[in-house]
Amino acid sequence: MTDDRPLGADEATFLAAVRADDTARFALITERYRRALRVHCYRMLANYEDAQDLTQETFLRAWHKRESFKGHAALRTWLYRIATNACLDFLEKRNDRTPVPAGLSGADWEVLYLQPYPDRMLPEDPQESVVARETIELAFIVAVQHLPPRQRAVFILRDVLGWPASKAADSLELTVASVTSALQRARVTMREQLPDRRFDWRITDAHELSNDERGVVKSYIDAHERNDLDGLTSLLRDDLRFAMLPDAGTLTTTAKDAVEGWVSGGLFQCGHDDWRGITTTVNRMPAAALYLRTPGDPEHRLFAIAVLRIADGKIAELTGFDATGKPWLGLPPAL
Fold this sequence. Notes:
Layout: H1 9-20, H2 23-31, H3 34-45, H4 48-64, H5 75-93, E1 100-101, E2 109-110, H6 126-129, H7 138-144, H8 149-160, H9 165-172, H10 176-193, H11 211-226, H12 229-235, E3 236-245, E4 251-253, H13 255-264, E5 275-282, E6 285-292, E7 301-311, E8 314-322
Parallel strand pairs: 3-8
Antiparallel strand pairs: 1-2, 3-4, 5-6, 6-7, 7-8
Helix pairs in contact: 1-2, 3-4, 3-5, 4-5, 8-9, 8-10, 9-10, 11-12, 12-13
Family: Belongs to the sigma-70 factor family. ECF subfamily.
Keywords: DNA-binding, Nucleotidyltransferase, Sigma factor, Transcription, Transcription regulation, Transferase
Pfam families: Sigma70_r2, Sigma70_r4_2
């Protein structure tokens, strides 16, 4: 695998660390790629905790294979190759890391292992993230999971990272023809899963919440804090898509039925009616972190995070995640 490029500072430092068997220098030079590699693994796996583990596995493999790095390719390319193949090895061993048929009407497939990605863990340099906002949003991550693992890898390397076919083929030990064929099939599936999206994934688009988005999230939190069911209903579109992961059951429902379903499930009832919330973002999407105070507890405890897709001032999609026991979200455990 060869990049037509002069030896860079990172490559030279890495080679010096390898020759000296210097673990400290090796760790220092590879650590700067951690965030970008973790995002890459997350796109492959849709699970933040798995992505953390596979990023660490990438560094372990890189150390064991350090003698194979000759500086002919960029260090970044070499690490991405190792990370991609580590993810493929993981997926080969796990039969629970594919979408499953939905248990409820209104959705065909569900990704029960999906986890949110904390924005604070994204690469700080927009050029380092090498992706548009859309490629970290939940809808994109879910759509990618419908691709077979090797096809998924081809799609991410080619259409997200922008690698040429020859470099992707080298990394996956495939022919260029095989990579081209896999990419064509992957694009068909992605267009089926995301029919309303543009497909120039490599345009970098830093995102801050708009005033409208902030307003909707604030109103969503206010409705919880006031137990205002009418106000909550008014924020939801009548074709709302709702899921509460990792529970099965993504469904399209009316706003009224959605709120009634939450109430019948115990929310906004005695013991589940003392809420606080804070506005945040995950997957570069607006989100509300919800805190619940149960009887006898002096504090509101982190309960769930609701990730919202807002369209025309209404909540079109709401994906809820159990937020307990996830310190990596970077949220206060109590308010």
